[in-house]
Amino acid sequence: MKMAIKTGDTVVVIAGKEKGKTGKVLEVNPETNRVLVENINIVKKHQKPRSQQDKGGIIEKAAPIEASNVQVICPVCGKATRVAHREIEGEKVRSCKKCNGSLDKKFVKQTKKEVKKVEKSAKKEEAPKAEVKKSAPKAEPKTTATKTAKTTEAKATTAKAAAKPAEKATTTAKKTSTQKSTSAKKGN
User: Fold this and answer.
1) Is 28 in a helix, a strand, or coil?
2) How far is residue 20's CA from residue 30's CA, in Å, rounded to a whole number?
3) Is 70 exposed, middle or buried (0-12, 13-18, 19+ CB in 10 A)?
4) Using CB atoms within 10 A as the burial measure, which of 50, 72, 80, 134 is most buried?
5) Per-residue pLDDT band at 188 (split at 50, 70, 90)
6) Which range has the top average pLDDT, 32-46, 85-99, 135-149?
7) How high is the pLDDT of residue 19?
8) What's the predicted TM-score (pTM) here?
9) DSSP state of 68
10) Where are the beta strands (DSSP E) in the chain?
Protein backbone atom coordinates (compact mmCIF):
# COMPACT_ATOMS: atom_id res chain seq x y z
CA MET A 1 0.00 0.00 0.00
CA LYS A 2 1.31 3.46 -0.87
CA MET A 3 1.57 6.02 1.88
CA ALA A 4 1.06 9.79 1.64
CA ILE A 5 3.76 10.37 4.27
CA LYS A 6 7.39 10.07 3.20
CA THR A 7 10.75 10.06 4.95
CA GLY A 8 11.92 13.61 5.68
CA ASP A 9 8.42 15.12 6.02
CA THR A 10 7.63 17.26 9.05
CA VAL A 11 4.50 15.94 10.74
CA VAL A 12 2.28 16.78 13.71
CA VAL A 13 0.72 14.12 15.92
CA ILE A 14 -3.08 14.47 15.93
CA ALA A 15 -4.03 11.62 18.28
CA GLY A 16 -2.59 9.72 21.23
CA LYS A 17 -0.46 10.63 24.22
CA GLU A 18 1.92 12.75 22.11
CA LYS A 19 -0.89 14.86 20.57
CA GLY A 20 0.24 18.29 19.34
CA LYS A 21 3.97 17.49 19.09
CA THR A 22 5.85 17.86 15.81
CA GLY A 23 8.83 16.01 14.43
CA LYS A 24 10.62 14.79 11.34
CA VAL A 25 9.77 11.39 9.85
CA LEU A 26 12.82 9.11 10.10
CA GLU A 27 11.35 5.90 8.70
CA VAL A 28 8.18 4.75 6.92
CA ASN A 29 6.85 1.17 6.94
CA PRO A 30 3.99 0.73 4.44
CA GLU A 31 3.36 -2.95 5.32
CA THR A 32 2.40 -2.13 8.91
CA ASN A 33 1.19 1.43 8.09
CA ARG A 34 3.50 2.90 10.74
CA VAL A 35 5.97 5.79 10.78
CA LEU A 36 8.94 6.49 13.02
CA VAL A 37 9.02 10.17 14.05
CA GLU A 38 11.99 11.86 15.70
CA ASN A 39 11.51 12.40 19.49
CA ILE A 40 7.92 11.10 19.41
CA ASN A 41 6.66 7.99 21.26
CA ILE A 42 9.88 7.52 23.23
CA VAL A 43 9.98 4.10 24.94
CA LYS A 44 12.47 2.58 27.39
CA LYS A 45 14.08 -0.68 26.40
CA HIS A 46 16.03 -2.88 28.83
CA GLN A 47 19.05 -4.16 26.93
CA LYS A 48 21.62 -6.75 27.95
CA PRO A 49 25.23 -6.28 26.84
CA ARG A 50 26.00 -8.57 23.88
CA SER A 51 29.77 -8.50 24.46
CA GLN A 52 32.20 -7.12 27.02
CA GLN A 53 32.58 -3.88 25.03
CA ASP A 54 28.82 -3.27 24.86
CA LYS A 55 27.03 -1.53 27.67
CA GLY A 56 23.73 -2.79 28.92
CA GLY A 57 21.07 -0.80 30.66
CA ILE A 58 17.86 1.08 30.00
CA ILE A 59 17.91 2.69 26.57
CA GLU A 60 15.38 5.29 25.39
CA LYS A 61 14.44 5.22 21.72
CA ALA A 62 11.61 6.31 19.44
CA ALA A 63 8.99 3.69 18.61
CA PRO A 64 6.84 3.73 15.46
CA ILE A 65 3.30 5.12 15.59
CA GLU A 66 0.29 4.59 13.37
CA ALA A 67 0.44 6.70 10.20
CA SER A 68 -3.20 7.73 10.60
CA ASN A 69 -2.27 9.52 13.85
CA VAL A 70 -0.04 12.06 12.09
CA GLN A 71 -0.63 14.80 9.52
CA VAL A 72 1.92 16.36 7.21
CA ILE A 73 2.81 20.02 7.84
CA CYS A 74 2.78 21.99 4.60
CA PRO A 75 6.11 23.80 4.02
CA VAL A 76 4.28 26.57 2.11
CA CYS A 77 1.48 27.54 4.51
CA GLY A 78 2.83 25.89 7.69
CA LYS A 79 -0.46 24.18 8.60
CA ALA A 80 -1.24 20.52 9.22
CA THR A 81 -3.01 19.22 6.16
CA ARG A 82 -4.31 16.19 4.33
CA VAL A 83 -2.43 15.15 1.20
CA ALA A 84 -3.79 15.57 -2.32
CA HIS A 85 -2.16 14.42 -5.55
CA ARG A 86 -1.84 16.45 -8.75
CA GLU A 87 0.39 16.68 -11.79
CA ILE A 88 3.11 19.31 -12.19
CA GLU A 89 5.24 19.19 -15.37
CA GLY A 90 3.99 15.65 -16.13
CA GLU A 91 4.92 14.26 -12.70
CA LYS A 92 2.51 13.15 -9.98
CA VAL A 93 3.19 15.36 -6.94
CA ARG A 94 1.83 15.41 -3.39
CA SER A 95 0.17 18.74 -2.57
CA CYS A 96 -1.50 20.55 0.34
CA LYS A 97 -5.31 20.45 0.46
CA LYS A 98 -5.44 23.94 2.03
CA CYS A 99 -3.12 26.03 -0.15
CA ASN A 100 -2.34 23.70 -3.11
CA GLY A 101 1.36 24.03 -2.28
CA SER A 102 3.66 21.13 -3.12
CA LEU A 103 4.80 18.82 -0.32
CA ASP A 104 7.61 17.38 -2.44
CA LYS A 105 10.88 19.28 -2.04
CA LYS A 106 11.53 19.40 -5.77
CA PHE A 107 8.47 21.56 -6.46
CA VAL A 108 8.16 23.59 -3.22
CA LYS A 109 9.77 26.75 -4.65
CA GLN A 110 7.52 26.75 -7.71
CA THR A 111 4.35 26.34 -5.72
CA LYS A 112 5.38 28.99 -3.17
CA LYS A 113 5.62 31.52 -5.99
CA GLU A 114 2.23 30.46 -7.35
CA VAL A 115 0.61 30.70 -3.92
CA LYS A 116 2.04 34.20 -3.36
CA LYS A 117 0.62 35.36 -6.70
CA VAL A 118 -2.81 33.99 -5.79
CA GLU A 119 -2.67 35.65 -2.33
CA LYS A 120 -1.71 39.02 -3.83
CA SER A 121 -4.57 38.91 -6.31
CA ALA A 122 -6.96 37.93 -3.51
CA LYS A 123 -5.77 40.88 -1.38
CA LYS A 124 -6.30 43.29 -4.26
CA GLU A 125 -9.86 42.06 -4.69
CA GLU A 126 -10.60 42.31 -0.96
CA ALA A 127 -9.06 45.79 -0.49
CA PRO A 128 -12.06 47.83 -1.82
CA LYS A 129 -14.49 45.71 0.19
CA ALA A 130 -12.52 46.33 3.38
CA GLU A 131 -12.69 50.11 2.92
CA VAL A 132 -16.47 50.04 2.62
CA LYS A 133 -16.86 48.02 5.80
CA LYS A 134 -14.76 50.40 7.90
CA SER A 135 -16.77 52.82 10.00
CA ALA A 136 -16.19 54.97 13.05
CA PRO A 137 -16.00 52.89 16.22
CA LYS A 138 -18.99 53.34 18.47
CA ALA A 139 -18.47 54.32 22.08
CA GLU A 140 -19.71 51.60 24.37
CA PRO A 141 -22.25 52.72 26.96
CA LYS A 142 -21.01 52.53 30.51
CA THR A 143 -22.63 49.93 32.64
CA THR A 144 -24.31 50.81 35.91
CA ALA A 145 -21.80 48.72 37.83
CA THR A 146 -18.89 50.86 36.61
CA LYS A 147 -20.84 54.06 37.30
CA THR A 148 -21.63 53.05 40.87
CA ALA A 149 -18.03 51.95 41.45
CA LYS A 150 -16.72 55.32 40.30
CA THR A 151 -19.20 57.27 42.44
CA THR A 152 -18.35 55.25 45.56
CA GLU A 153 -14.63 55.85 44.96
CA ALA A 154 -15.25 59.58 44.58
CA LYS A 155 -17.30 59.68 47.81
CA ALA A 156 -14.61 57.80 49.72
CA THR A 157 -11.85 60.19 48.59
CA THR A 158 -13.89 63.27 49.54
CA ALA A 159 -14.66 61.76 52.96
CA LYS A 160 -10.95 61.13 53.55
CA ALA A 161 -10.08 64.66 52.48
CA ALA A 162 -12.73 66.11 54.82
CA ALA A 163 -11.53 63.97 57.74
CA LYS A 164 -7.90 65.14 57.51
CA PRO A 165 -8.55 68.85 58.29
CA ALA A 166 -10.86 67.86 61.14
CA GLU A 167 -8.09 65.69 62.64
CA LYS A 168 -5.63 68.57 62.32
CA ALA A 169 -8.03 70.95 64.04
CA THR A 170 -8.52 68.60 67.03
CA THR A 171 -4.78 68.05 67.44
CA THR A 172 -4.07 71.81 67.38
CA ALA A 173 -6.85 72.39 69.89
CA LYS A 174 -5.31 69.79 72.22
CA LYS A 175 -1.88 71.41 71.87
CA THR A 176 -3.21 74.89 72.73
CA SER A 177 -5.15 73.59 75.73
CA THR A 178 -2.09 71.79 77.09
CA GLN A 179 0.03 74.89 76.54
CA LYS A 180 -2.46 77.02 78.49
CA SER A 181 -2.56 74.56 81.38
CA THR A 182 1.24 74.39 81.62
CA SER A 183 1.56 78.18 81.51
CA ALA A 184 -1.08 78.50 84.23
CA LYS A 185 0.86 76.06 86.41
CA LYS A 186 4.06 78.03 85.88
CA GLY A 187 2.32 81.29 86.79
CA ASN A 188 1.18 79.91 90.17
Assistant:
1) strand
2) 23
3) buried
4) 72
5) very low
6) 32-46
7) 95
8) 0.55
9) G
10) 10-13, 22-29, 34-37, 42-47, 57-62, 65-66, 70-73, 80-81, 83-88, 91-96
